[in-house]
Amino acid sequence: MTSVRAIAACLPTLALVAAAAGPMVVLAQSGSGSFSSGQQVTFNRDVAPIVFRNCAACHHRGGGGPFSLLTYQDVKEHGRQIAVLTRTRVMPPWLPEPGDLRFADELRLSDQEIATIQEWVQQGGVEGEPCDLPARPEFAEGWELGKPDLVLTARKAFVLPASGSDQYWNFILPVAISQTRWLKSIEIRPGQKRLIHHANVLVDRTQASRAREKTPGSGFAGMEIRLESETFDPDSHFLFWKPGTIPYVEPDGMALRLDKGTDLILNMHMQPSGKSEVILPSVGLYFADHPAAMFPMLLQIENDAALDIPPGEKNFVVTDSLTLPVDVDLLAIYPHAHYLGKDLLALATLPDGASQTLIHIKQWDLNWQAVYRYAKPVFLPKGTVISMKYSYDNSEGNRANPNHPPQRVIAGNRARDEMAHLWLQVLPRHDPNAGTDPRMLLQEALARHSIEKNPADFEAHYNLAAMLQARGEREEAVKEYESALRMRPHDGVVNNALGGALLAAGRVDEAIIHLGAAVKDRPNYFDAHYNLGNALASKGDFNAAAVQFRAATRLNPDDADAEANLGSALAQIGHLSEAKSHYRRALELNPGHALAHENLEELEHLQVSR
Amino acid sequence: MRTRTCRNLVPALFAIFVTCLARQGYGQNAEGLTGKNVDPFREASGKVVVLVFLRTDCPISNRYAPTIQELSARYSRQAAFWLVYPDKKISAAVIRKYLQDYGYKLPALRDPQRVLVAQGRVQVTPEVAVFDIRGRLVYHGRIDNWYEDFGRSRSAPTTHDLNDAIRATLSGKPPAAAVTDAVGCYISDLQ
User: Fold this and answer.
1) Which residue of B has its CA nearest to A195?
2) Are strands A421-428 and A297-302 parallel, antiparallel or unpaired?
């Protein structure tokens, strides 16, 4: 009788322990645990290595985490919290599910590590033997990579209010360089790391963003910014910061081109902390010794047009896919949605039909978005279909839902709008047999794909035209530019590009009409003045050509071609000494300028012989 | 006889222990920032008492500063708000600096013995305890549902539990819920 009662009393107790230590049971069964049930877990021996490796990068004084986790005392005083946050995988923040492909710097605790933490807390948080404690990690006080070659600091601080919703702010950082440099690394110092969820740097090669500032240097609000480039510039890199990241150094041969006059736009997502904070970010630039030899590209697949999510909808699915026209190595991936995003999946279907998960995030959280770089480049052959499948939760049950009650949500740049974007950084493999740059084939494929989805996509028509023109398909290029122009009839950039294409196709009179429209739309547009000058000169109207070239040289005093052409136009109308001074200026800017050299020599010869 | 003595002794000790708890329960061991014992209930004289438990290194606590300040201002005539810091390591000077940084205009207490923690039955920071004018605990738990889980906050709360509890208490009614789960940093993790 007595023994039966004893067993009855024991069993529930055992069951309770097992339930409380759920992951422990798994661990014991797997047989790979660093401790067996009942063995004492200590901070110094078992927990410190996990915390130092996975938590300390943010959780140190001056780091992005809200408190330090560097000593026994630090960790003990947050013990239960750490147990809950690691068990639920809220911390360390790492969104992708484990898969076949590994990412660099994966911040994912193993089940065993999580079980160790749970057991340590349950056992009361024993410190252990001092000799077991591994060396405490050390963190740079200043720049992580040493003194930068160039530091850019925001001209005006942003004042983050104490409360309210998350803030998105853009700082314009003009790059103070006098010649083209190649960026191999950028360290983003967002000012107050603890308040910053993430920061992106965009390269603005045309200073177009400056128009958005109320006063120069003031910065401007906005969650998403889009920069339209006027030139085909496929050399693209992710410049991204999230808490705990160590600045990424581009591999040998890769670097991002920075020209004189380039602006970097630092786009930051900040969360009010309870007190007003002054945010003054800076970035440190590290230059490579050599120009880049390899040029990765950013590909975007997206389907914003399909985003029209009814209120209350729990599982709204959006898809898109792109067939690769060339072999590429996939270097990094950046899935992006806003607050309604739930399950984000990207797949590659190889030409042989095999499927490869590129990334799968089951619990999207905008706050912890990141660029994920693969541990090794992922080869994707020509013909691979890259597809995305995102689902959105616009119900009340989605706590991140910015609308209460839920509202219809469509695509847009604001936090309460949505997005369905997947960015991929790829390095196209060069096929020696193909005549065309593989990057242009990729760009063309992207443009054609966008037009399929949205025939009224201005940018896609423009980009496709640019690619066609580069491939020498002049009439096709003109048609595409004309399509773009129908959407924006007065746009200076399109008029200029169409004028250039018409000029190249020998249709000079039409070219002059569009280039004239470009100059009218954008009086400070160097390219348009320069092209119009050429068109007028080819009609023999050198007086009018000189006016345009003069305007071009005023807009960009460092352009040797414009100086040389101005010289030629002036020479044609008999202004010989002025012509010579412009040829000389062209040669100052580019001592190897053959045209300027020959024409100057001819002019001098002419004057001597007179 | 000896057995009977034993039996008598045990309840007697227990009774003393209970008395001790009760005495502590009146807040005599909580300290003001000058180091003096402060009894927030005696000071409140006739007001509803709201104890707000905070840690200086808890980001969720910190983010609530404007909300707490705003609520205390809204009910300044009827409710006495006290900020309570249960971390015995945190000095009065650190708390003063914290109050200044976060723009608090509320009196603060250190509760190194966790007397007010026990009385408010709170477990985390930030968590609040509301006492009616007779000093009876009528609500303890979250301020609102901004956080229902670690790491996943709403853009704005959709419930206002503390506000509702104060309003109910002022109108002599029991709050809709006497207890809610607060999310934050565990007080039991502290020394």
Assistant:
1) B59
2) antiparallel
* CB-based contacts of A513, cutoff 8 Å, min separation 6: A499
Compare all CA atoms of chain B with the CA of A405 and give the residue at the minimum distance. Answer: B158
Same topology for domains A311-430 and A458-609, yes or no? no
Comparing CA positions, the residue from A244, A114, A237, A103 lying closest to residue A182 is: A237
Which structure tokens are listed for B131?
């006492």
- Would you tell me which CATH number, out of the four given (1.10.150.20, 3.40.640.10, 1.10.3720.10, 1.25.40.10), belongs to the domain A458-609? 1.25.40.10
The domains of chain A are located at: 17-132, 150-287, 311-430, 458-609
Residue-wise pLDDT tens digits, A280-308: 999 999 999 999 999 999 899 999 999 99
Residues A413 and A419: their CA atoms lie apart, in Å, by 8
Element (H, E) at B51: strand B48-53
Radius of gyration of chain A (CA): 30
Which DSSP state fits A67?
A: S
End-to-end CA distance of chain B: 44
- Name the minimum distance, in Å, from the CA of B66 to any CA of chain A: 6
**The two structure tokens encoding residue A162:** 């104490």
| Span A311-430 CATH architecture | Sandwich (2.60)
Closest in B59, B155, B188 to A402, CB measured: B155
Query: How many distinct structural domains can be found in chain B?
Result: 1
Of B63, B151, B158, the CB nearest to A273: B63
Helices and strands of chain A, counted as H and E runs: 16, 21
Encoded tokens for B184 = 């934050």
CB pairs under 8 A between A and B: 83
Cβ atoms of A120 and A126 within 8 Å: the answer is yes
At position A609, the amino acid (one-letter code) is: S
pLDDT at A147 over 80: yes
Q: Does B191 touch chain A (CB under 8 A)?
A: yes
Range of the domain at B22: 2-189
Kindly provide the b/e burial profile for residues A106-123, where b requires at least 16 CB atoms within 10 angstroms of the residue's own CB.
ebebeebbbbbbbbbbbe
CATH architecture of A150-287: Sandwich (2.60)
Q: Which residues of A touch B156 (CB under 8 A)?
A: 165, 404
The band of A190, judged by pLDDT with boundaries at 50, 70 and 90, is: confident
- Contact between B97 and B67 under an 8 Å Cβ cutoff? The reply is no
Q: Which residues of B touch A196 (CB under 8 A)?
A: none
Q: Among residues A185, A429, A422, A468, which one has the least CA distance to residue A298?
A: A422
pLDDT tens digits for range B142-180: 999 999 888 778 888 999 999 999 999 999 999 999 999
CA distance B98 to chain A (A): 10
pLDDT value at position A35?
Answer: 54
Q: Which residues contact A424 (CB under 8 A, 6 or more apart)?
A: A298, A299, A300, A301, A330, A332, A333, A334, A358, A386
Closest CA to A434 of A385, A380, A471, A386: A471
Q: In angstroms, rounded to a whole number, what is the distance separating the alpha carbons of residues A525 and A44?
A: 65
Degrees (nearest 5) of the Cα angle A38, A42, A48?
140
- Establish whether this prediction's ipTM goes over 0.85: no
Residue A16: the pLDDT is 33
How confident is the model over A96-108, as a mean pLDDT? Answer: 94
Write down the residue that tokens 């191999």 correspond to.
A184
Instruction: Single out the residue of B115, B45, B130 nearest to residue B82, CA to CA.
Output: B130
Give DSSP secondary structure letters for A204-247.
ETT-GGGGG-SSTT--EE-S------SS--------EE-TTPPP
0.80 surpassed by pTM:
yes
Minimal CA–CA distance to B68: which of B144, B136, B121, B11? Answer: B144
CB contact under 8 A, B150 and A339: no
